[in-house]
Amino acid sequence: MGDFYPEMGAHGVLHVRCGKGAGGSGPRQRLVPTVDGVDRLLAWWLAEVRPQFGDGPAGGRAVLLPSRRRAAGGGWCAACAVTLRQGLAVAVGRWLPAWSGRLTPHSLRHYCASHLYERGVGLEAIGALLGHVWLSTTAGYVHVPAERIERCWREANARVAGRLLDADPYAAGAAGPL
Asked: Mean of the per-residue pLDDT values for the chain?
């Protein structure tokens, strides 16, 4: 619980210490800015939901997103809430039935990467947020819509045409025609 720093940055920062590493490579630590309202969501979670797990903040060392809670007599009881994957599956089945079986935490990770890229965030920053070591891994997460490809192509051609049309081959210092 001590890994959320609401005072850092514009909206706070979440220190991810136990992010899953691919292929057994171990956790990937990273600092993730809590943008797009995540700061408000975490504040609500810490104030309203997290205390229901009953272990208190434990000096900031308690797990921020636990999947188990302490039993009344001490020790941990079985999972007290459905896991994120199961909870998402239930919500999708109820609210987005056409997406059942297709909308998973991992697909949301791909969507997040694609959404950030479409908004202009560079691959290096997206990779850092996702905990990727290699840009090639991040590139596999980003799905570029055809509209973006077409727009980028038009913009690049407009820049080249602008340079060609604005160029004066007879300006001072120019080599002139060959």
From this structure: 78
